[in-house]
Amino acid sequence: MEIIQVKNLVKKFNGFTAVDGINFSIDEGEIFGFLGPNGAGKTTTIRIFTTLTKPTSGQVLINGYDPIKDPDKVRSSFGIVFQDPSLDEELTAYENMEFHGIFYNVPRPTLKQRIEDLLKFVEIWDRRDYLVKTFSGGMKRRLEIARSFLHHPKILFLDEPTLGLDPQTRDHIWRYIKDLNKKEGITVFLTTHYMEEAERVVDDLAIIDHGKIIARGTPEEIKAKTNKTSLEDAFLVLTGRSLRDEESNGIDNLRIHKRLWKS
Amino acid sequence: MEKLKRFLNIIYILWIRQIKRYFRSRARVISALAQPLLFLVALGFGFNSIFMQAGKGNYIEFLAPGVIAMTVVFTAVFSGVEVISDRQFGFLKETLVAPVPRSAIMAGRTLGGATVAVIQGVIVFIASLFVGFHPNLTGEIPVTLLFMFLIGIFSTAFGTAVGSVLQDMQAFPLVINFLFMPMFFISGALFPLENLPKIINYIAVFNPLSYGIDGIRTMLTGSELARFSLMSDFLVMGVFSLALIFAGAYLFSKIEA
After folding, report:
1. Backbone phi, then psi, for A61, in 5-degree steps?
2. CB B118 within 8 Å of CB B72
3. Nearest chain B alpha carbon to A91
4. How many angstroms separate the CA of residue A232 from the nearest CA in chain B?
5. pLDDT in tens for each of the 263 residues of chain A?
6. Cβ B13–A99 below 8 Å, yes or no?
7. Cβ–Cβ of A259/B167 closer than 8 Å?
8. N or C, where is chain B less crowded by C-beta within 10 Å?
9. Are B244 and B157 in contact (CB under 8 A)?
10. Considering only residues 134 to 153 of chain A, which have any Cβ-Cβ distance to chain B shorter than 8 Å?
């Protein structure tokens, strides 16, 4: 079954085309890598999938629902770990989990057990009553991953889940994700800049650049197509070696415009 | 029924979040207490003799209800900055991708902000007793609390509306002071308005805070200092609070995280 379907998806911001007519679909239960240089359109695509941004045109189905027509059904279908932290630092780890559980309507009796299982799984159960602001970057990430699984989503979106973390934490995080993918059958949609990690983890991937999908297949297929032995080299062949500045994405552009002209 | 229960659950968890955050920040509790006390002591003692000479009685008795209201107003309106800080710390995204109506988020925020403001107001009320305020508690305490709560709702919703539109943490206090300070000064909180130029009195009639503060003053010091009837105090404050909740909910629903 195809759990994510995308048809001719376009997103423009003030004349800048962030996503330029992409088409693809993802099978249920796989770990899918969505790779691309900075400013390629990855985050914008995730924002459309997760109901945070409306597309300019095209169609998206997440777990069979349209994010524009059925936002709440879509929202119940996925869990997400954003690129930047999204925890309440003045609350404890447990309280952050509890808050999420109530927001996603996890029944009270099962909520406690589920929180305990997940916090033990990501190894922060001992620190559950500490305020999140006392946590290291790696602990916050692990907490966010546990939280994103709390409501038994069918799809998990991970936007650069290992950015800025030490190798030990990164290794752990990929282990959790693979385990949960197996145990709970969750489809994982992830973006990352670490090609060797993508190569190790994903079943299937797409490479996006300048808003267009330029390659699609398993890591093996993509390496074979480009005659390279590593995904990193294949990626560089496909997207070119020219440097991408930390381009701000469309939303940032929009915000800057707004700040300059409106408020 | 199931839907209502869920709505209330969401409001509850947002409400308790704000209460927890408030009590965990001792700096907030203490600093929010310091300014009203300074007003009470400095203005209260400073202007008392002039006020007495004008034959208006003890100034502290007039000022204390105003300062209590001020505490509620400013604690509540500044809680709107949390919309901006939640956005900067990313927590807003967590709430916006959840399958939850924005109106429930707005309601929970507003109730939480108003509750914290009322708690702060009660603390200042107790403190004012030590500075020489002798309330004439003929009225019911719950009615006083109700007025404080209405002012709290009005101001929190106002702050949330401004916080939803602004994205800049530094601009927030400036904008709020620009909008709220004039409203506060012509509300009759700090000085009686009767002998002021007519025009100010006309403006004050359209100032919702005038009614809320009048309500609190009536309840704490009796009706001789009142300007409006208690019923009109209640109605005007109630209608404005509702209007602000809708305005705030509308602007909040437009937020893109």
Report:
1. -125, 125
2. yes
3. B21
4. 31
5. 899 999 999 999 888 889 999 999 999 999 999 999 888 889 899 999 999 999 999 999 999 999 999 999 999 999 999 988 899 999 999 999 999 999 999 998 899 999 999 999 999 999 999 999 999 999 999 999 999 999 999 999 999 888 888 888 889 889 989 998 998 899 999 998 888 889 999 999 999 998 899 999 999 998 888 888 888 888 888 887 777 755 555 555 555 555 555 44
6. yes
7. yes
8. N
9. yes
10. none
Gyration radius of chain A's alpha carbons: 19
Interchain CB contact of B168 with A (< 8 Å): yes
Q: What is the CATH number of the domain that holds A74?
A: 3.40.50.300
CB contact under 8 A, A102 and B10: yes
**Total number of residues shown for chain A:** 263
Residue A242, C-beta contacts closer than 8 angstroms, at least 6 positions apart: none
d(CA A78, CA A156): 6
Q: A251 — contact with chain B (CB < 8 Å)?
A: yes
ipTM: 0.87
Q: State the residue range of the domain holding A7.
A: 2-261
Residue from B97, B109, B254 whose CB has the most chain A CBs within 10 Å, to mutate: B97
For chain A, how many structural domains are there in total?
Answer: 1
Distance of alpha carbon B17 from alpha carbon B257, whole angstroms: 20
What is the C-alpha to C-alpha distance for residues A210 and A20, in angstroms, rounded to an integer? 8
Beta carbons of A90 and B21 less than 8 Å apart = yes
Phi, psi of B196 (to 5 degrees): -80, 165
Residue B91: its chain A contacts at CB < 8 A? 86-88
Residue A53 CB coordination number (10 Å): 23
Nearest Cβ partner for A99 among B17, B90, B167: B17
Cβ within 8 Å of residue A167, ≥6 positions away: none
Q: Which of A86, A96, A140, A143 is most worth mutating to test chain B (most B CB atoms within 10 A of its CB)?
A: A86
User: H-helix or E-strand containing B119?
Assistant: helix B102-130
Residue A98, chain B, CB below 8 Å: the answer is yes
Contacts of B139 (CB under 8 A, 6+ apart): B218, B219, B220, B222
Per-residue DSSP letters for A69-136?
A: T-HHHHHHHEEEE-SS----TTSBHHHHHHHHHHHTT--HHHHHHHHHHHHHHTT-GGGTTSBGGGS-
